[in-house]
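EI: anyone free to look at a 125-residue chain?
SC: sure, send it
EI:
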Amino acid sequence: MTPREKIQAAYELAFFPPRVHTLWNQLKRGKLKDQALWSELVDMAIALHLALPQSGYASPGALHRLAFYQAQSRGFAMPRCLYRIRERMGVPGDPPSGTVPPHLVRDIGLPEFCRPRRPYATVPP
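SC: here you go
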C-alpha cells in the first residue's frame, strides 16, 4: 500500500462508518488479514480524531475539511469505535494522543454516504 493509499484508508476508517463496520465484522469473525497494517491504519484513524494542529498542515481548506469530518463523525461515535477495535486487536502501546500529525491533514474526499433518493410518489387522482 502506498503512503497516499494509507492516508485515504485511514480517512475512510476514521470518518466513513461502512468502512469501520466492515473492519469490525472481519475482526469479529477472525477473517482479518494483515493485522500489522490494520493496526497502523487504526492508529492513524484515531490520530485523525485528535485536536487540530496549529501549524505544519497542507492547507486551510484541508484543515477545514478535517474539522468538518470530525464534527460529523461524532454522531456515529466513530472515535469510540476505533478505540474498541484497537483494544480488540490487541495493539501494543498507548493510542495516539496530542494533536493530529500535520502530514495527515490532507484534502481527502470520502465515498458518498447516503441512500439513493426516491422520486416523489405521485398521488392517484
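EI: Residues 60-73 form the longest helix (14 residues).
SC: 👍
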